[in-house]
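Quick one: structure for this chain?
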Amino acid sequence: MNSTIADRILQIKQELPKTVKLIAVSKYASVEAMREAYQAGIRDFGESRVLEAIAKKQELQDLPDITWHMIGTLQSNKARQALLNFDWIHSVDRLSLAQQLNRLAIETNTQISICLQVKLADDPSKSGWSEQELIANLASLAQCQAIQIKGLMTILPLGLTPQQSLNIFQKVAALKNRLNSQRWQNINELSMGMSQDYDLAVKAGATMIRIGSKVFG
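Got it. Here's what it folds into:
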């Protein structure tokens, strides 16, 4: 017998500490499937394309307590729309984007929570700060006071062993601790772990996991 969306959500939630937020990655899911997930208790949805997310948001206006998370690569020309339609942007992967969002937040009087996307393993297909680049950019990021920098996000390269995956997640957690010790106490969130590796991310200290296929099938 096939499991339902509600069954799968319950299974995942039973495995998670209360401190970990489950973000249902709905970028390939229909609005109907999202409604099923909502009925099963999900309030956080992750989308990768701004215009598709806006269309879904309009169809789900009757569910006002959804928190919308932008988890895909954000192009500069979509920054304003993302700022106005999402509650979180996890994929702030460069200083210029953080500065642009900061300017737009001031212009539009909009609040946004963001994660800084870091890349702590070599992966040509992913973007994000290395640890050295991020440390070098901290003074500039500190001037972006109109955006709320609340966490770090990472996406792992494909093909890693479980131990390699765990090691990278632990490096991201250690980087967060390093930032906390350098007067960045507001960086408390670790957005890391997807359907295939969220158990390892949780073990390393993830506070938000982004799950698509294990929720929606």
